[in-house]
Structure formats: structure tokens, C-alpha cells
Amino acid sequence: MMFGGSPISVAVPPMFEAKICVSRNGTGSMPRMPAIEIAIGPTSRTVVTLSRNALSTAVRIMNSSMIFHGLPFAIFADLIAIYSNRPEFRTTCRIWDAVTFIIALSSCDEIRSIPSSFSSPRYSVGNLISILKQASTKGILAYGVAGIIILAGTDLSVGRVLGLCAAVAASMLQSVTFASRYYPSITKPLPLIVPFLACVAIAVVISAFNGFGMAKLHMHPFIVTLGTQLISYGLCCIYIENQPSGSTQALSSLDARYVGLATGSIDIFGFKLPYLVIIFLLLGVVTWIVWNKTRFGKNMFAVGGNSEAAEVSGVSVTKTIMGVFLYAGLMYGIASFLEGARIQSVGTATGINYELDAIAGCVIGGVSFNGGIGTVPGVVIGSIILQAINYGLYFLGVNAYLQYIIRGAIIIIAVAIDVQKYVAKK
Q1: What is the pLDDT of residues 49-107, one digit of tens each?
Q2: 21 φ, ψ to 5°?
Q3: CA separation for the pair 352, 355 (Å, rounded)
Q4: Which of these, 149, 141, 189, 186, lies nearest to 165 by C-alpha position?
Q5: For residue 193, what are the CA distances in angstroms to 190, 258, 283, 351?
Q6: What is the pLDDT of residues 257-270, one digit of tens each?
Q7: CA triplet 141, 168, 252: central angle to 5 degrees?
Q8: What are the φ and ψ backbone dihedral angles of 94, each rounded to 5 degrees?
Q9: Where does 50-87 show beta strands of DSSP type E?
């Protein structure tokens, strides 16, 4: 592997290896082009022949793009060298490096016209959009959790609050033609704003209770949010399993208008950007403004950094904590409403472990558990990276239980690095 022109050795576990083989084809004096074979995991393999122009374009994309810049790709120099004296080149690199290289290659016009597994669903733009859509609702949750973490707290109730709110929204927005709908008295479709406000109200009330426990009762947020997590889960189970029709099945057959929030998109110069992603980014802008351009946001960072100093400076610690939890509740309500539309079937398991993904996205994005540190762009990037990892593990066929281990390890490592930085500053 190369980084900054210097060779370095990187130990890569077998499950995260990608093997790349480059060899010339053609014989005699005929022009010869490199054939690149990329094997990711035990079953995925791509072979494609590249022209010199296509390869050069891919390398230029890698060098100039902010997304790919600075990543350690030794293979590029070797791929160029294949035109000189080396008849064959083989290397092993990290999976994410190889996948990034595939994305860069797919940007070349020459590649797009070549039928290969580069165009398979595994590497399609549609899958990238799916990653963004799945990251959207959890990213919105992360906007709320991040503020609480900046206060040196946490919120374990996020996932179960989402499940409860999503169940309420789904029950109110079942199709009026569905015989076993939760509310048979609703014979005309409700305006979407009604269940949306119901979601927000429930989430804000629960979050306000969490904030009250931390600000007024001086309870550790771990304890109070653990309690509301169990309460929310119990309420969700009671609500779903006491349907008037006698059914205990997940709430489905949702109104087409509601589902359209998750499946719909806006065409921008031929590129379809989903509503979910747009809402995710817009709420990110709103959150950035709240954090960086308002007195409330400055007070939040002050309380998170040193609550006693903030109080001496005239900051109302109680009001600030309550405000952060209320804003978090607003984000939870919005995410719950959108998640119900995205999954289109809400059951008692909806929202399980969402709090872990939201917290992990914050930590990966640089929000410190020590309080007082965090940025909105970091939360956005962290949420997307985490979802990309989850998506990649799924497509690589990694055991579902092993995925939990990997995700848990990511959280531990990220927090350990953050703690070490804090200790080093002291």
C-alpha cells in the first residue's frame, strides 16, 4: 500500500480483503490493454478490459475528488506501470479501497458501455441511493441524539420511541379500503399533517420527560432514558397487539400518499433525489443554524463543556438541557413519521437498536461523549459511513450475528479514540 508516496504495510483480515489482478491481453505487435479482475469476498468477481484513457480518467477522478482524495491506493501507480514493463500485477487491498476504485471506474464513459458486473445491482447507483435513504431516518435521529451527547449525556430511548410513534402514524394512515384497519371509523383519508403532529407530540413529551429527569431531578440520562425506553416499548406492544380487528400483525396497507414520502423523488437534471434524502439534508441545515447561529446553540456547547462555568456566566443550565431534549424529541418525531413510510410495515420490532446506530453515527462523526464537542457535518458523514458499513457487511454475506459484533467494536473503538484525545489534552 502507498500513502503520500511511502510504502506502508497494512494488515487486513481475510473477510475484509479484496484481490486485484491486472494483466495484459493481446499478442504480438497488436495494442494490448490491461484486464482488471476484482474479487471481493468469496463470490463477487468482476473482470473488465480498460483502455488507457479510461484508466487514466479513473486515476484522475481518484486524485481530484474530495471523496477519494488521500486514500491509500498503491494499485494506481502499478496500474499505470502495466503499460511499461510489467506483464502482470497482483495485489491485496482493503475491501473499501477496492469498492471506491470501482465507483471511480464507473464514472468513466468507456466503462459504462462495457457489460460487466460493474453494472450489477451490487455496485449500482440505486444501491448508493438506498444507503442514503436508510441513513436518512437514522441520521435525523442522530441530529437529536448529538445534542444530548454534547451535553455529556445519552439517550437510550430513541429506537423504542421511534417504534411507538411510527405505530401511531401507521395506524392512522392505513388505507381506508383495508378491512382490518386500526381505526375503522376513519372512512376518508386523513391529512398527513394530523398523524405527523401526533408523532411529534408523542416524541416531544417523552423526550421532555427525559430532559426533566436530567435537568431537575439530576438523574443520569442513562437511567432515565433506559426507563423511558422500556415504557415506550411496552406502550408500543400494547398498542399494536390490541387492534380492534383482533389482529396482532404488523400495521401495513398504508396510504399511498404516506408511502410516497419514502418512495418519491425529485428529478434534478436527470438525477432522482429521494424526498427522504432531501429532508435529511434540510434538517441538517436547520440543525447547523440552531447549533452555530443562535444563543441556544452556544449555550448548549457551553453547558456541555463545563456546566458550572456556564451557570456562573449566566446561562440557564436547566432551560438549556430542556431545550436540547425538546429539539431531540422534534427530530425523533419527524424520523418516526418518515421511517413508518419507508419500511411500510410497523410492528413491535420496529426501531430495535436504532439508538445504537444513531449514537454510533454521532461518535464516528466526531461528537465527543466528554461533552462540548460536535459538528453537524460530522453527524451527517458519520451516519452515512455507518450505514455504508452495514450495507457492505450485508452484501458480503457476513454472518448477521458477526455484524452486531463489528458494529459494537466500531462504537468501542470510536469512543476509545475520543477518550484518549481528551486524556491527552489534560
Answers
A1: 444 455 555 555 444 443 333 333 444 444 444 434 444 444 444 444 444 455 444 44
A2: -125, 130
A3: 8
A4: 141
A5: 8, 10, 18, 22
A6: 999 988 888 988 77
A7: 100
A8: -75, 150
A9: none
